């Protein structure tokens, strides 16, 4: 019965998304050799700086690392709603 309510009200999907995000963070941590707190700080700093120039969807904001041979790249998926126009 609880399973039916969970599906109807979306709790199962939310739990699945939380578990998926946790696993993703563990994988990123392993690839980058960063502590989870350092990775979270990096994400927050990137979000803060980019938000000065663009209105972004922070729920869709993702940071990952990609490794090719001896090189590692920071890959960010940043959904942009609109660019903020600043007077210079």
From TrEMBL:
It holds the Pfam family MinE. InterPro entries: MinE, MinE_sf. Keywords: Cell cycle, Cell division. One of its GO terms (biological process) is regulation of division septum assembly. It comes from the Bacteria. Belongs to the MinE family. Prevents the cell division inhibition by proteins MinC and MinD at internal division sites while permitting inhibition at polar sites. This ensures cell division at the proper site by restricting the formation of a division septum at the midpoint of the long axis of the cell. This is Cell division topological specificity factor.
């Amino acid at each position: 019965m609880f399973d039916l309510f969970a599906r109807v009200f979306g709790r199962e999907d939310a739990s699945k998304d939380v578990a998926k995000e946790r696993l993703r963070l563990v994988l990123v941590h392993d690839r980058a050799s960063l502590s989870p707190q350092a990775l979270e700080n990096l994400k927050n700093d990137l979000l803060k700086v980019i938000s000065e120039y663009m209105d972004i969807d922070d729920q869709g904001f993702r940071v990952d690392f990609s490794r090719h041979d001896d090189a590692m790249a920071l890959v960010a998926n940043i959904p942009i709603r609109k660019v903020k126009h600043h007077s210079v």
